[in-house]
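Format notes (please read before filing issues)

Several people have asked whether sequences and structure tokens are stored in separate files. They are not. Every record keeps both together, in the order shown below: the sequence lines, then the token lines. Line labels are part of the format and must not be stripped during preprocessing.
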Amino acid sequence: MHIGVCIFATDYAIRIDELAREAEARGFESLFVTEHTHIPVSRRTPFPSGGPIPKEYSHTFDPFVSLMAAAAATTRIRIGTGVCLIIERDTITTAKEVASLDVLSGGRFEFGVGGGWNVEEMENHGTVFASRFKRLVEQVRAMKEIWTKDEAEFHGQHVNFDKVWCWPKPAQKPHPPVLLGGESVHTLQRVVDFCDGWFPRGRAAEVILPALKDLRARAAKAGRDMKTILTSVFGAKPEEAMLESYAAAGITRAILRLPSEGREGVLPLLDQWAKLIKK
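Then the structure lines:
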């Protein structure tokens, strides 16, 4: 099982290029960053974990800009979004950003996507909360058309365009892995239907292993080889016993969450967690 790290890359945290170099030097397999384009001042949508929304949510850099800086500073470590809120993004523009980053990073990009939770944030982008997953499904399918076809077209309810030319095509073939966030039975079925991986949150540790069993059953029913489905636990606890249970269950990757702090708060954690890689 691979071990990576993730962070809310903010304007007050350790620089993402420095973090990428330090994580790669210590043997971490991957580096993931989060996304929120903004946070509406209105708190009509409560924070899922309760209480006030943490500062880092409104201070994140754009994930594609951050990851390009990380890629330029490294040679090996894989980079990814955890998660990209594609339901707040233009489909064609995002497809080009993904392909561009994958090419310029030498095929190191992992495309974590999700439906999100903040109703007001989505509304500011013209996205309807109730239909966000229908939109997400169409967006992923449309982007796959753009990445794999010289002349791509897509006609759906939420995404609709006639034949287009759009290069570059991704370095990874047929495209970077698309990892879907969430833990619901609907998420599991969507992973089997049109994604390359499952991206559950580590705070849902008690449901991950039972859900993984369900995912395998759904894949078998659909005739899908589980070897084609990556499983990356986002924000996994940096505990040896927990990581061993994930590895024994066949989890592909555990991603440990770093605080959005300066180098003095982050580098000691990297040193500490690097010992888990060796174990």
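For reference, the curators noted about this record: The first strand starts at residue 2 and ends at 7. Strands lie at 2-7, 30-33, 78-84, 109-113, 152-155, 160-164, 178-181, 197-199, 230-236, 253-257.
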